[in-house]
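Design request, tokens follow.
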């Protein structure tokens, strides 16, 4: 017949298997009363007694007392200026090195402008020398050609780079000619390279 297992017999067998550890105090006794080790601390806000273990000392009796106490503490804010709108705002001292904007909207706008500027600066004058340099959304060589002849270019006029380098926009390297003249020049150049 199988003997029914009771809580008392399980405790006794557990204690007997770890008897040296129990004697040295390394294993907690199941019947030990831990309320005798608890400490009583007063809440910082309402001064009611709070009982806690020594390893987990509490300062407040509830979250509401903690939040009320935190609100009443003096704030050591640092004044900063928003990098986007220029408005003055205050932050906590630990955020002064990373905070640059006064609000979420200023942050979004400021970061998008910074990104566009960085991206524009990296892309500007790139293209391995195969693209034309822009000036206010227009090709710079066309603006210089207009400056050279003293009037606006007509729709059938083009500005030709004499040395063939599209990035060399010196006035002595640019000539204004009609589209048909430019086509004839390039076809004769390709047919007769010398």
């Amino acid at each position: 017949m199988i003997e029914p297992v009771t809580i008392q017999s399980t405790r006794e067998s557990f204690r007997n298997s770890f008897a040296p550890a129990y004697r040295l105090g390394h294993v907690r006794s199941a019947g030990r009363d831990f309320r005798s080790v608890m400490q009583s601390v007063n809440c910082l806000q309402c001064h009611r007694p709070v009982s806690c273990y020594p390893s987990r000392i509490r300062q407040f009796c509830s979250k509401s007392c903690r939040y009320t106490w935190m609100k009443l503490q003096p704030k050591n804010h640092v004044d900063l200026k928003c990098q986007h709108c220029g408005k003055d705002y205050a932050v906590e001292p630990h955020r002064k090195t990373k905070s640059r904007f006064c609000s979420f909207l200023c942050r979004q706008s400021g970061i998008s402008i910074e990104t566009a500027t960085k991206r524009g600066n990296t892309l500007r004058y790139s293209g391995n020398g195969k693209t034309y340099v822009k000036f206010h959304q227009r090709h710079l060589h066309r603006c210089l050609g207009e400056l050279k002849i003293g009037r606006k270019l007509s729709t059938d006029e083009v500005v030709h780079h004499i040395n063939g380098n599209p990035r060399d926009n010196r006035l002595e390297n640019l000539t204004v000619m009609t589209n048909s003249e430019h086509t004839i020049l390039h076809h004769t150049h390709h047919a007769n390279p010398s």
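Comment from the thread starter after seeing the answer: thanks! The chain has a mean pLDDT of 79.
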